[in-house]
Amino acid sequence: MNSIEPPRLLIGCAAGFSGDRTDAAGPVVDTLIARLASGPAGQRAFLIFETLAERTLALAQLRRRANPEAGYEPLLDDMLRPVLARCLAHGIRIVSNFGAANPRAAARHIARMARELGTSAPRIAVVEGDDLSGPEYRALLNEALGAQMDGIRMVSANAYIGAEPIAAALDAGAQIVVCGRVADPSLTVGPAMSHFGWRADDWNRLGRATMAGHLLECGAQVCGGYFADPGYKDVPGLEAVGFPIAEIDADGRCTIGKADATGGLVTEATVTEQLLYEVHDPAAYLTPDVVADIADAEVRALPSAEGAEGADGADGADRVELSGVRGHERPSRYKVNVCHEGGWLAEGEISYAGPRAEARARLAADVLTKRLHGLTLRVDLIGALSILGDDAGRALADTPDAGLRDVRLRVAATHTDRAQAERLTREVMALYTCGPAGGGGVRTALTPRLNTLSCLLPRESVPVRFELMDAEDLA
User: Fold this and answer.
1) How far is it, in rounded angstroms, from Cα 185 to Cα 474?
2) What is the pLDDT of residues 23-65, one digit of tens each?
3) H-type helices in 73-102, by residue range?
4) Residue 318 and residue 257: Cα distance in Å, rounded?
């Protein structure tokens, strides 16, 4: 480490999942540009997009099968085009997993986008090695999963790799790093490793940066988006909720804020909720980079530089500091998700309204149950019993008719045979004239299912690497 501490690193997040709002990046980039202009010499800023979920990759793999130039984030153009030129002009580097199942095609698309915008050609790196879908990895997966692999039709297999190849790509001069399946916090850890020069075994700093990445990874969630509960947890301006920006220091400590002139709020409560989100053990949050430990973490609202009130009326100004995070040696194995074809999901809905509507909906469910021999039905009375129901129907049987006058019946079933699953959609449609009185608004759907298996593989068996794409590759 240099004796002179590098300036705090700015990292803004502009997406928390595939399908997130595509106008989020603009205010984040505006804020980063303003802070770079007023900040110390040598300050750097990154923009990250987190666009993967557990099954997003399987869907992307199916798109790639149909079109070899597809398989990356379908909203890439909408998300990136409005801010790409400004990021390149102001030195804001971009790191994302929007490569999904086809990082090289995503890189080519970004290069085309840059040409169309009239910018200089960006230096783009792809991170690879997570994709274990090829036949050369089948034996390895068979060994790890055993009999669970028997007879399945695999769609995708991806390891959750970490931040090291991202940091290496940035050290090599990449302005844009396109990843497939890296762990969500690694999108933040990689830039921090590169900026501050941390070692890959600097566990405490990596643990702190990991939790900064964890706060960023769900986008607006930490800014009140998944926090709002009217009258209990009020959030101002939710229709224009801001996306988060982290300031990370050389020891990995972070302050979380949000884009300027946006709605939402960042408070001790919003940060605490996001900090605990999807954390199975606060003392041992497993990632490919480090085992993060937040057992003694502290969350503290900071006063604004101007002393202005924050969005919640407190003197916090949407700035919250996270401290007390530790890190322990990283796991010796990578987590791998294997997605495979899982048959068919059939769904049908029909509405009943007026006197005895709930009784008619229950009668319709009984009719379907008796006619659809061989199918196990999930029955929901939307508006009466759905979220708190159960697949076996016990909750429905144990819940008395409340006499509701506006009920939508939903039934669903799964089957490996498409023809069997289609029976449900036909029977729901037949309720128009064969069922109880007054049913209407039928909607049916038949969807191929994807099932997931998970296992652990030795790190040395996963060929993690990065490559700076040359002009010929990007043409």
Assistant:
1) 28
2) 999 999 999 999 999 999 989 999 999 999 878 899 999 999 9
3) 76-89
4) 5
| Location of structure tokens 């043409």 | 475
CA separation for the pair 225, 218 (Å, rounded): 10
Predicted pLDDT of residue 191: 98
- Phi first, then psi, for residue 161 (nearest 5°) are -90, 175
Residues spanned by CATH 3.30.70 within the chain?
Answer: 336-455
| pLDDT (average), residues 211-239 | 96
Q: For residue 475, what pLDDT is reported? A: 76
> What is the distance between the alpha carbons of residues 377 and 421, in angstroms, rounded to a whole number?
11
Which of helix, strand or coil describes residue 368?
Answer: helix
Instruction: For residue 337, give both structure tokens.
Output: 């998700």
3-state secondary structure of 96: strand
Place of tokens 């999807």: 278
Beta bridge partners of 246: 11, 256
Residue 331 pLDDT more than 80? yes
Q: 150: Cβ–Cβ under 8 A, 6 or more apart, which residues?
A: none
Residue 333 has pLDDT above 80, yes or no: yes
pLDDT tens digits, 88-115: 999 999 999 999 999 999 999 999 999 9
- Is residue 300 exposed (0-12), middle (13-18) or buried (19+ Cβ within 10 Å)? middle
Written out in words, the top-level CATH class of the domain with range 336-455 is alpha beta
How confident is the model over 119-129, as pLDDT tens digits?
999 999 999 99
Nearest of 155, 151, 162 to residue 61 by alpha carbon: 155
* Cα dihedral across residues 278, 281, 284, 288: positive or negative: negative
SS3 string, 6-41, reads CCCEEEEECCCCCCCCCCCHHHHHHHHHHHHHHCCC
Among residues 400, 184, 392, the alpha carbon closest in space to that of 285 is found at 184
Residue 416 is given by DSSP the state S
Longest dimension (CA), the chain: 81
For tokens 């506006």, the residue is 406
Instruction: Say how far apart CA 352 and CA 273 lie, in whole Å.
Output: 39
Q: Where are the beta strands (DSSP E) in 39-110?
A: 45-49, 93-96
Residue 337 amino acid letter: N
CA angle, corner 370, sides to 368 and 372, nearest 5?
Answer: 65
Residue with tokens 């900040």, as numbered in its chain: 39
Residue 432, helix vs strand vs coil: helix
